[in-house]
Amino acid sequence: MMSRTFVLLAGCLLVLARSGSAQGVTYTGEAVVARVNALGVNVSLQDTGALPSAGGSLSTELAAVSVPNLVDLHLLSANTVGENNQTNSDASVTNVTITAASVYITASVLTSTATATCTPALSGSSTIAALKVNGVSVRVTGAPNQTIPLLLGSLVINEQISSIVNTPTFTSADLLVNALHLKIAGIADVVISSSHAAVACPNEAPQ
């Protein structure tokens, strides 16, 4: 968690530097349906890629994909848009199965959204339906960073990592939302439905 936060903060500073040279709003966005790092496999599935700093939109869709003995996913969709002084990103997937070590996770729907604006303001959320861990239903509270302890690690639900940075001339807002993040130390790191949105804005830019 700390290392990811550091990366996000460093990214904010880089965004500030870039926007400073352009004297305009800089957009940062990316949506990924799944990131899987386990059993020697390290892949991103249905990744929009990074949004151009000038903004625009990126999207990707796929009917189904499977990484044998790790994940099985259906109706994958990811989008990111940067315009009008804000970035919006979202990712969604249905009929999810994750298998790692002794952990077996299923869910019927997993979505995430993240929005960052020049106000500055951040908003994000996750939708998790029919979540089960090893066949046992999990009550989803809706609160950010709900953590389920596991024998060998943890499962974070609606993971949210955010930062707002103010300088005399620029403001940046940065939010990462992961619907699910399975962490098993030394064995697996699996993120499902990941949305990242950020903006860096000159203070004189329209609010």
Describe it for me?
Helix content is 10%, strand content 66%. It is mostly beta strands. The protein has one domain (2-202). The longest helix is centred in the first third of the chain and has 21 residues, at 2-22.
Descriptors for this entry?
7-stranded antiparallel β-sheet, 10% helix, mainly beta, 207 residues, 13 strands, 6-stranded antiparallel β-sheet, 1 helix
Summarize the structure.
The protein is mainly β and 207 residues long. It has one helix at residues 2-22, and strands spanning 26-38, 41-47, 56-67, 71-83, 86-100, 103-117, 121-129, 132-133, 136-137, 146-149, 153-166, 170-184, 188-202.
Element layout with pairings:
Layout: H1 2-22, E1 26-38, E2 41-47, E3 56-67, E4 71-83, E5 86-100, E6 103-117, E7 121-129, E8 132-133, E9 136-137, E10 146-149, E11 153-166, E12 170-184, E13 188-202
Antiparallel strand pairs: 1-2, 1-13, 3-4, 4-5, 5-6, 6-7, 6-8, 8-9, 10-11, 11-12, 12-13
Report the total helices. Answer: 1
Rg from C-alpha positions? 17 Å
What percent of residues adopt helix (DSSP H or I)? Answer: 10-25%
- Total domain modules: 1
**Biggest sheet record:** 7 strands, antiparallel
Number of strands: 13
Poorly predicted runs are 1-22
Ends: how far apart?
31 Å
Task: Note the quaternary state here.
Answer: single chain
Percentage of residues in strands:
over 45%
Query: What is the H-and-E element order?
Result: HEEEEEEEEEEEEE
Average pLDDT works out at 90
From the helix content, strand content and strand pairing, which structural class follows?
A: mainly beta
Shape: globular
